Amino acid sequence: MSDSKIIVALDFTEADQAKRLVDRLDPSLCKLKIGKELFTAAGPALIEHFTNKHYDVFLDLKFHDIPNTVSKACQAAANLGVWMLNVHASGGLPMMQAAREGVDKANISVAPLLIAVTVLTSMDEATLHSLGVSRDLPAQVLALATLTKQAGLHGVVCSAQEASMLKSALGKDFCLVTPGIRPHNSDKDDQTRIVTPAEALNLGAHYLVIGRPITQARDPVVALNTILNEI
Ligand SMILES: O=c1ccn([C@@H]2O[C@H](COP(=O)(O)O)[C@@H](O)[C@H]2O)c(=O)[nH]1
């Protein structure tokens, strides 16, 4: 397992695109994230391909379903040998407890980290309110993260904007995984709650999830190394 704090989000349509990029990377410099797009296209074989190359893989499928289904899905995901997997905290306490039980039943030597998404980093306060949530956005993140800790999960996905609040409330060992990372002068794309890589770590993020600023850069390896030199 590498101690890199950067998780490169491999949001590609085909396995070969991801493999071409990863062939130029090094597992000591970054971890990898496989999300819905790539997993749907390439499946478990791609996870095995990268774990055989000694990469830590975060399987970002954000399970959100009835407890029994999420439990079985988490067990199956853990059996793939991933380093981290996740569910949506808004699935509720019984669903998250079932997720943890599913991971505990997996037939593996090292259990993955199990975390829960609080409020997507693409969302702002107005979008949250449009869903009928009356709390302000940081309060909603804190409530969902508190529920996640109560369910016995290892941490949450949140914006680094909420990292220092969560660190104070839930302790330094509660894992904070932060997408919405944007180096200075890079495009926001569809992200709303963005933070630069160095600032995210200063605020208490444990891991930085970075996709397009690396994968869509003219030279992704240069982009990754530039970020690594800045943090
Ligand atoms: O709240 C969330 C949860 C997950 N993501 C995922 O992270 C990456 C971010 O990619 P960028 O290209 O750096 O925006 C992407 O795979 C999302 O599915 C997130 O952005 N926010």
TrEMBL record:
<feature type="binding site">
    <location>
        <position position="191"/>
    </location>
    <ligand>
        <name>substrate</name>
    </ligand>
</feature>
<feature type="binding site">
    <location>
        <position position="212"/>
    </location>
    <ligand>
        <name>substrate</name>
    </ligand>
</feature>
<feature type="domain" description="Orotidine 5'-phosphate decarboxylase">
    <location>
        <begin position="5"/>
        <end position="227"/>
    </location>
</feature>
<comment type="function">
    <text>Catalyzes the decarboxylation of orotidine 5'-monophosphate (OMP) to uridine 5'-monophosphate (UMP).</text>
</comment>
<dbReference type="InterPro" id="IPR013785">
    <property type="entry name" value="Aldolase_TIM"/>
</dbReference>
<feature type="binding site">
    <location>
        <position position="182"/>
    </location>
    <ligand>
        <name>substrate</name>
    </ligand>
</feature>
<dbReference type="InterPro" id="IPR011060">
    <property type="entry name" value="RibuloseP-bd_barrel"/>
</dbReference>
<keyword id="KW-0210">Decarboxylase</keyword>
<keyword id="KW-0456">Lyase</keyword>
<feature type="binding site">
    <location>
        <begin position="60"/>
        <end position="69"/>
    </location>
    <ligand>
        <name>substrate</name>
    </ligand>
</feature>
<dbReference type="InterPro" id="IPR018089">
    <property type="entry name" value="OMPdecase_AS"/>
</dbReference>
<protein>
    <recommendedName>
        <fullName>Orotidine 5'-phosphate decarboxylase</fullName>
        <ecNumber>4.1.1.23</ecNumber>
    </recommendedName>
</protein>
<keyword id="KW-0665">Pyrimidine biosynthesis</keyword>
<feature type="binding site">
    <location>
        <position position="33"/>
    </location>
    <ligand>
        <name>substrate</name>
    </ligand>
</feature>
<feature type="active site" description="Proton donor">
    <location>
        <position position="62"/>
    </location>
</feature>
<comment type="subunit">
    <text>Homodimer.</text>
</comment>
<dbReference type="InterPro" id="IPR014732">
    <property type="entry name" value="OMPdecase"/>
</dbReference>
<comment type="pathway">
    <text>Pyrimidine metabolism; UMP biosynthesis via de novo pathway; UMP from orotate: step 2/2.</text>
</comment>
<dbReference type="Pfam" id="PF00215">
    <property type="entry name" value="OMPdecase"/>
</dbReference>
<dbReference type="GO" id="GO:0004590">
    <property type="term" value="F:orotidine-5'-phosphate decarboxylase activity"/>
</dbReference>
<feature type="binding site">
    <location>
        <position position="121"/>
    </location>
    <ligand>
        <name>substrate</name>
    </ligand>
</feature>
<dbReference type="InterPro" id="IPR047596">
    <property type="entry name" value="OMPdecase_bac"/>
</dbReference>
<feature type="binding site">
    <location>
        <position position="11"/>
    </location>
    <ligand>
        <name>substrate</name>
    </ligand>
</feature>
<feature type="binding site">
    <location>
        <position position="211"/>
    </location>
    <ligand>
        <name>substrate</name>
    </ligand>
</feature>
<comment type="similarity">
    <text>Belongs to the OMP decarboxylase family. Type 1 subfamily.</text>
</comment>
<dbReference type="InterPro" id="IPR001754">
    <property type="entry name" value="OMPdeCOase_dom"/>
</dbReference>
